[in-house]
């Protein structure tokens, strides 16, 4: 069921608040005056519009999945046909030459605050309504959840952000908000307050799958508390100064399995990344962006934000741009020893599919030369320009989680390539791993490893899509659970990388842990032989962990915004 998305993009208002207009280019517009927008009769449409912008406002260069910004991690290369193809993202990838005037730095900021403007407009009207509107509290909970989600995305990117949470703000009040009114810790607390309010009133289930549930609020709250736990409150540094036990206890509370009745691990990991309706909104999907096709709109309401990730297959995906390519380092991380466990020094030798064991999630995450692309034997990958527009500069691996079978009805051509496949924002495996991390940090190693092992046992049985790969292509598939609880925290961190690979969590995890500088500079040094752009790359601590505040925003803030540290 994709009920909510069909409603969302069938109606979109142009909000004429504070002199701003936020347009949805995909559907006809209904322009309302401010007075009409604030009429309680419009509330359902306003709520729908607030949902809709989280789909209509994203872009191939500003995907709310954050893949464009995860090229800073050791999971992925930027890709494309060279360094000048998306040059501002090349600068992010090598951590050099980033300017506060770069268009991509401002673009994401603007898009997300546009989203928050619609959410706040809906909240303002809901607060003014009386209780004769029976869904008032539930709809407020949904909007508080969306507001928390928007602020969460912004805070992970920019750290010091203005929070727009005061009801019925005037234009003058908007113009006097500071981006340093709260400490880093207090900022996470602002997000948590919205999520607490959402958690109190959201139902356990929603008929419309795109609306958040109580479990979704709990999962996002757990994630926010996990970020909050790694305190970075020295205004002159991004270093982690404390790991707060009380915050970790909150993570454990909000990941309690009792909250997640009806949710769990899908028996097959691959099912989370399939476009067929029977697999979408499955047992593991706690909250997902809902996309659709054949819904009466031009090209359907597909996910176009992955349009740059499609490879350039002649006669099939002509125009595919081949961005966001898995790194050799990531592929090496899936290499397992004869016990089916991750190698301690996995990057000492590049993984060789002909001789080396690997976790089955490798073949479900990464398209590898010699193996079928999207599990379709009509497309055997090779070291050719079909699979690397850069002729090997960014290697020949291709992302599988973002793409669909090119022979299926689910690959749709518009201005870019799109698909109706949902994008899961919060999935149950992440909840288990957040709980495991909090437990490991608190010394409860045995409990943490058992959660990791649940995920590893699921990985071992996730072989339906790659059935026969051992016989046909020589794959050596091997993954097993841990048999002891030693080194629990590092094992949890490794499992997060493997399970969530190419889901744009990796860079933010490294920053949260305070490990970005060491890990990424090590990656640059080791990866330079595989991708020569890294010969000049260098990650600077207390700078490259966060994006700079965009120049355009500082210039327009009347002195109320402060630039992030790092000499921007």
Structure write-up:
With 568 residues, the chain is mainly alpha-helical. Strand 10 and strand 11 (376-380) form a beta hairpin. It has a two-stranded parallel sheet. A two-stranded antiparallel ribbon has the order 3-7. The chain is globular and about 65 Å long. It contains 19 helices and 16 strands. Helices cover 38% and strands 8% of the residues.
Question: Which features does this protein show?
Answer:
globular; mainly alpha; 16 strands; 19 helices; two-stranded antiparallel ribbon; 568 residues; two-stranded parallel ribbon; disordered N terminus
Helix and strand topology:
Blueprint: H1 3-8, E1 13-14, E2 30-31, H2 34-37, H3 43-56, E3 76-79, H4 87-94, H5 103-128, H6 136-158, H7 171-174, H8 184-201, H9 214-229, E4 230-231, E5 242-243, H10 245-254, E6 285-289, E7 323-326, H11 328-333, E8 357-358, H12 361-365, E9 366-367, E10 372-373, E11 376-380, E12 398-399, E13 412-413, E14 417-418, E15 423-427, H13 428-441, H14 445-460, H15 469-473, E16 476-477, H16 488-499, H17 506-513, H18 516-527, H19 551-556
Parallel strand pairs: 1-2, 8-16
Antiparallel strand pairs: 3-7, 4-5, 6-15, 9-12, 10-11, 13-14
Helix pairs in contact: 3-5, 5-6, 6-8, 8-9, 9-10, 9-13, 10-13, 13-14, 13-16, 14-16
